[in-house]
Amino acid sequence: MLKGENISYAHKEFEILKDIDFSVDFGKLIVIVGPNGAGKSTLLSVLSNELDHKVEVLFKEKNLKNWKLEELSVNKAKFSQQYNTDIPLLVNDVVLMGRYPYFENKPSQTDLEGIEKAMQQTDVLHLKNRDYNTLSGGEKQRVHLARVLAQLKNNIQNKLIFLDEPLNNLDVLHQHRILEIIKDFTRQGNTAIVVLHDLNLTAQFADEVFLMKNGKVIAYDVPEKVFTQQIISDIYDFPCMICENPVYKKPMIVFGNVKIEAEFV
């Protein structure tokens, strides 16, 4: 579905990514994790074809660079952690930007229904007539998530979404709600590649974890095989213990010099 081999990237002679192989199938939620400076966001930008690079990244067996923009925009979308915080528009109009690939002058009823559904999903429908600039950071985050989701509301199969730290500024309720939305997106045969910092949410929701440090891939597997005490303590240079989440039966990471009575995994 999406594949890149020997991915390397340097900026001003500083090597950020080093010989990374990446491959993901349809219907997967892949979470990229790692300490600060690991190269997570850079890898996401390379895979989404947002950086000028020499690597061949294949999406649906076709080089991303060979896709026509109008065709790619209805198959792939990306949410970035950097977005314009000063937009003199109503929330409804910001979300409508996600439907720009589908109309020239006037949105159709399908477009309007699409943005309403996306706003419902991200819990911003009640804000649709609000000035975007009056919103809190978390509300703005959810508006842009709605915009990205609206972009991929179509009948095309095997779509791809990239999300770079989509949980920033969100409270616990909305963190879980957004990850449930992304998970449901992948259950429909689509693929999501997400950068997160929260390892426990990653363990709970990810199908596979891509662990990075210093521009290299350290592990790429299911959470149970990536989240071990030795691997996580070494990667983050901080002690941890791993036990089983009693609700979800997934690895649960507890950082610090702690002792817990649990079955370690």
Give the ordered list of helices and strands.
EEEHEEHEHHHEHEHEEHHEE
Percent range for β-strand residues: 25-35%
Strand order of the largest sheet: 6-7-8-3-9-10
Total number of beta strands: 12
Structural class: alpha/beta
Domain count: the total is 1
* Second rung of CATH, namely the architecture: 3-Layer(aba) Sandwich
Radius of gyration from the alpha-carbon trace, in angstroms: 19 Å
Index terms:
alpha/beta; Rossmann fold; single chain; 265 residues; 25% strand; 6-stranded mixed sheet; 4-stranded antiparallel sheet; 9 helices
Can you describe this structure in just a few lines?
The chain has 265 residues and is of the alpha/beta class. The protein is built from 9 helices and 12 strands.
Describe this structure in words.
The protein has helices at 40-47, 69-72, 91-96, 109-121, 137-151, 172-187, 199-205, 223-226, 229-236; strands at 2-11, 14-24, 29-33, 57-59, 62-63, 76-79, 160-164, 191-195, 208-213, 216-221, 240-244, 251-255. It has 265 residues and is α/β, with parallel strands linked by helices. The strands form three sheets. The chain has a six-stranded mixed beta sheet with strand order 6-7-8-3-9-10, sandwiched between helices. Strands 2-1-4-5 form a four-stranded antiparallel beta sheet, with helices on one face. The longest helix is centred in the last third of the chain and has 16 residues, at 172-187. The model has no long low-confidence stretch (mean pLDDT 93).
Helix-strand blueprint:
Layout: E1 2-11, E2 14-24, E3 29-33, H1 40-47, E4 57-59, E5 62-63, H2 69-72, E6 76-79, H3 91-96, H4 109-121, H5 137-151, E7 160-164, H6 172-187, E8 191-195, H7 199-205, E9 208-213, E10 216-221, H8 223-226, H9 229-236, E11 240-244, E12 251-255
Parallel strand pairs: 3-8, 3-9, 6-7, 7-8
Antiparallel strand pairs: 1-2, 1-4, 4-5, 9-10, 11-12
Helix pairs in contact: 4-5
